[in-house]
């Protein structure tokens, strides 16, 4: 059964479905699903009601309960923080995990991650999400063989960025998990922040905008050949050494003279990135 309340409100606004979808920040197909009767996620309901200058209950009377006096008072109180929980370590028993958050997504999944090598279960989760009609965008620093299983899926877009990520991000509709990977030692479990979009221009919106900016600068990966070409290009680019490293230049102009009888040490082979380039 379709949602005539929503259809009438959009018609009265004078907007086309495409214009309305752009204002709310979703695909026009998502709006069509709402008109067909699907109830949007809570954050989207709030944006729709605001765009149409009405209330959520007026648009979805069966899905949105009548607020009590206490709840009505809370609705008039400004919300200033999108962070709903923080954990010192991602391994804390109470800390949510990315997979659980993503499985709860109704419409949108976004991920910023260094690689998929350490999370093979994530690939299957994305394949299932695609089969269920969810849209996913993956921003990845170091594509590996796990990426191949996602190529060609209509609902999954993958782009690669050579810039090192300073965090891992999981987004499911209007919720996010922000994993602060640079904090602590490499062997320590990183802190994690759970966010829910509750205000315009807050931390959630800033992270979402940062993801969009990096997405526009990243390289689309739609075929195995594009993955190979991207990896070949990035392998040829020199990577800066850490500031504390004494080996500032891998090919110094002048090498210190070695005594004739000094033993020659074999250099450790640099790690190879998938796929191996022909030698």
Description:
With 279 residues, this protein is an alpha+beta fold. Strands 1-7-6-5-2-3-4-8 form an 8-stranded mixed sheet. Helix 2 packs across helix 3. It is globular and about 55 Å long.
Please indicate the percent range of residues in DSSP E strands (runs of 2 or more): 5-15%
Q: For the residues shown, what is the average pLDDT?
A: 76
Inertia-based shape: globular
The stretches of 5 or more residues where confidence is low (pLDDT under 50) are 71-80, 236-279
The rounded Rg comes to: 24 Å
Structural class estimated from helices and strands = alpha+beta
Biggest sheet strand line-up: 1-7-6-5-2-3-4-8
> What about the largest sheet?
8 strands, mixed
Taking the alpha carbons of the first and last residues, their distance comes to 62 Å
SSE sequence, one letter per element = HHHHHHEHEHEEEEEHEH
Count of DSSP H/I helices:
10
Helical content (DSSP H or I, runs of 4+): 25-40%
Counting DSSP E segments of at least 2 residues, the number of strands comes to 8
């Amino acid at each position: 059964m379709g949602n005539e309340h929503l259809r009438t409100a959009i018609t009265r606004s004078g907007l086309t479905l495409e214009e309305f979808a752009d204002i709310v920040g979703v695909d026009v197909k998502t709006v069509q699903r709402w008109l067909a009767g699907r109830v949007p996620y809570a954050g989207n309901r709030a944006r729709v009601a605001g765009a149409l200058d009405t209330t959520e209950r007026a648009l979805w009377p069966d899905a949105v309960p009548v607020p009590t006096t206490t709840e009505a008072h809370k609705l008039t109180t400004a919300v200033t923080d999108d962070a709903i929980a923080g954990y010192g370590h991602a391994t804390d028993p109470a800390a949510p995990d990315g997979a659980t958050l993503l499985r709860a997504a109704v419409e949108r999944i976004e991920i910023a991650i260094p690689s998929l090598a350490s999370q093979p279960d994530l690939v299957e989760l994305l394949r299932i999400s695609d089969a269920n009609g969810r849209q996913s965008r993956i921003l990845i620093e170091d594509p590996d063989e796990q990426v191949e299983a996602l190529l060609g899926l209509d609902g999954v877009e993958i782009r690669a960025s050579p810039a090192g990520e300073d965090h891992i991000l999981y987004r499911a509709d209007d919720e996010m998990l922000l994993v602060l990977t640079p904090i602590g030692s490499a062997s320590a479990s990183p802190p994690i922040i759970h966010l829910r979009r509750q205000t315009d221009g807050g931390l959630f919106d800033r992270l979402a905008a940062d993801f969009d900016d990096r997405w526009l600068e990243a390289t689309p990966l739609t075929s195995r050949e594009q993955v190979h070409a991207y990896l070949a290009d990035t392998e040829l680019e020199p990577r800066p050494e850490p500031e504390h490293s004494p080996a500032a230049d891998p090919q110094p102009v002048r090498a210190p003279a070695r005594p004739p009888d000094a033993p020659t040490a074999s250099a450790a082979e640099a790690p190879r990135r998938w796929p191996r380039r022909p030698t």
